Amino acid sequence: MRWLSVLLIWSGAASADPVAVHQTASALFDEMPRLTITDDLEEECGAGRQTNPNGFYCTSRNEIYLADGARTRPQAAYEVAHLLGHAVQVKHGVADVALREITRRRDEEAKLRGWVERQVNCIAGVLMAQAGQPAINLTSAFGEEPFTDAHWGRFPVNQGPQVSIGLAAVQEWLDTGYAAGDVAVCAVGEFSSDLLVAAQRSR
C-alpha cells in the first residue's frame, strides 16, 4: 500500500514532520520529487539488501520513498531532508558537475563524493530550518553515521553510491546549513553554491 504525501493526513508531532520538510523543499525549488509513504520499500526502484531500510530517492522516477514504519520516527524529518538534498543537486545541475569530475578523476572519487555528501547535509540543514524543524543531534538520534548505505540513484537504487564521511562531518555540515537557513553557505570544496542559489525561488 502506498500514500502520496499530498494525500497524507499527518498525525505525528509538528516538531518531527518529514512532510513539512518536503513541502518546504517544494516551495523553495522546482522539480522536487514526490514523497511516497510505502509499507514495502523493497518493491520500489530496485531496492535490495544494500539499500537504506527507512527511505531512498529514486532519480529514475523522481520520487522519494519513505517506509511507513519510519515516518513517525523523530529522525524522519532529517532523513527526508537528506534525500531532498540529493534531489536538489540532481535537479539543479550539481550532480552533473560532480559526475563529470568523478568520471574524469577516478583517483579522487572518494574526496569528490565526500564533498557531494557534505553539501547534501548542508542543504538538509537549510530545509529543516526553513521547515521549522528542531535541530538534531545525530549521535543521539542514530548512534552512528546515517546514510552510508545505498539511498539515492537510478534504478536499481540498490547499486547506488555508498559513501562515508564520518558522523562529525555530517553533523558539521547539517549544522552549517541549519544555522544559516540559506543554501548560499553550502559551497564545499570545488562545488560552489552558485547553482543552488540560482535555483532557489524568491522567498
Mind sketching the topology for me?
Elements: E1 2-4, H1 18-28, E2 34-38, E3 55-58, E4 63-67, H2 76-91, H3 94-104, H4 109-130, H5 138-142, E5 152-153, H6 167-180, H7 194-199
Parallel strand pairs: 2-4, 3-5
Antiparallel strand pairs: 1-2, 3-4
Helix pairs in contact: 1-2, 2-4, 3-4, 4-6
Description of the structure:
This protein is 42% helix and 9% strand. It is an alpha/beta fold and 203 residues long. Helix 3 runs antiparallel to helix 4 (109-130). It has one domain. The longest helix is centred in the middle third of the chain and has 22 residues, at 109-130. A hairpin with a 4-residue loop joins strand 3 and strand 4 (63-67).
Tags for this model:
single chain; 203 residues; alpha/beta; five-stranded mixed β-sheet
Shape: globular
Which secondary-structure class do the elements indicate?
alpha/beta
The low-pLDDT segments are: 3-14
Helical element count?
7
Give the overall average pLDDT.
92
Tell me the number of strands.
Answer: 5
Tell me the span between the first and last alpha carbons.
36 Å
Would you list the SSEs in sequence order as H and E? Answer: EHEEEHHHHEHH
Q: Hey, roughly how much beta strand do the residues contain?
A: 5-15%
How many distinct domains? Answer: 1
The strands making up the biggest β-sheet line up spatially as: 1-2-4-3-5
Major sheet attributes: 5 strands, mixed
Radius of gyration, whole Å: 15 Å
Query: What is the percent of helical residues?
Result: 40-55%
